[in-house]
């Protein structure tokens, strides 16, 4: 279990003690943007793989205490939350945005605020956060809480880190983008700073539904667990 805690801590630290601070800027000044992104990607993947391997060991540990049972009372809300998560994450991946990796140039384009960015500047990370919450609800064991809790923390703090990083790099250009959008989903729309235009994202939503349905069907085959609909 300690190995899983260490892996989760490393995953969080990589994103917030390096990527989310001026440490990143100093490293980039030495290595260049391309080399830094390559090193950071390898480090992130390595930490994630470490977490997954440690999670496998922790699940079989005697320390893997169950805090609540797994049944329809927890599984059914989780399925709905995962569906919502995919509606954010998949369109987010399919949308060019100033918040994406190497997306700085997008900030000056008329399409900088379109589709999912009208809803939130960080649709993929909000999808990841909702996905993590769903799995915490559906799995009440200690190992699951550590794994998905680590992902949840990373996803929730990620937007703050990215916004700060973009402000340092782009200054007022990014602040103008922030003024027209929101981190919290739908906040800019509720505040009248933006409009919801489903026509700009409809096909991305259809892709999200298809991916969600495929993952739901295949879930027991790649997790080794019971079927979500069982």
Compute the number of helices: 10
Give the SSE order as H and E letters: HHHHHHHHHH
Number of separate structural domains = 2
Number of strands: 0
Distance between the termini: 29 Å
What gyration radius follows from the Cα positions, in whole Å?
19 Å
Shape: globular
Low-confidence stretches: none
What class would the helix/strand composition place it in?
Answer: mainly alpha
Helix content: 55-70%
Strand content: under 5%
The mean pLDDT is: 90
- Main sheet: strands, sense, barrel: none
Compose a concise summary of this entry.
The chain has 230 residues and is an all-alpha fold. It has two domains: 1-64; 67-230, no CATH class. It contains ten helices and no strands.
Explain what the structure shows.
By secondary structure, this protein is mostly helical. It folds into two domains: 1-64; 67-230, no CATH class. The chain has ten helices and no strands. The relative contact order is 0.14.
Question: What is the fold's blueprint, element by element?
Answer:
Blueprint (H helix, E strand, L loop, with lengths): L1 H18 L2 H10 L1 H27 L12 H22 L22 H4 L3 H16 L3 H29 L1 H8 L7 H4 L11 H22 L7
Keywords, please?
2 domains; 230 residues
